[in-house]
Design brief:
By secondary structure, the protein is an alpha+beta fold. The chain has a domain of 71 residues: GMP Synthetase, Chain A, domain 3 (2-Layer Sandwich), CATH 3.30.300. The chain contains six helices and three strands, in the order ααααββααβ. A three-stranded mixed sheet has the order 1-2-3.
């Protein structure tokens, strides 16, 4: 007789009966067990989700930031993250903040030409 590849799933009532017999706490939660995944597939999913080892849109922007806003403005500003289609930029000087605000449309046009940046719709400038 061949053994099944996967162990049989028991109902919560049976699991609790076995737990009571063994003297361990019962499972009173509402959640169901998720099906098991291969470790390699799980690691790959996490690497894709968190962009580990892959170029991110934010990193592309950071690499080209001095070309987009100029070296003087880049020294006082740092692109951080894209939130809801807007690029958050921390600016450490009010004059640079005003300069970036005045030139936001040309900066956005240049940004949209970078690979993976077409979805950016605006800039959010914050003191930082």
């Amino acid at each position: 007789m061949a053994m099944p590849a996967e162990p049989k799933e028991f109902s919560r009532a049976i699991e609790n009966l076995i737990a009571d017999f063994r003297g361990v706490p019962e499972d009173r939660g509402r959640s169901r067990r998720r099906p098991m995944k291969e470790l390699g597939a799980l690691v790959e999913d996490m690497m894709v989700k968190y962009k580990i080892g892959r170029p991110s849109t934010e990193q592309t922007i950071r690499d080209h930031w001095a070309k987009l806003v100029g070296a003087a403005n880049a020294a006082y500003s740092h692109p951080v993250v894209i939130e809801r289609g807007r690029l958050l930029v921390l600016v450490s000087h009010s004059v640079v903040r005003n300069e970036l605000f005045q030139h936001r449309e040309p900066i956005l046009e240049k940004l949209k030409k970078l690979p993976g940046c077409a979805e950016i719709r605006g800039l959010t400038l914050r003191a930082g």
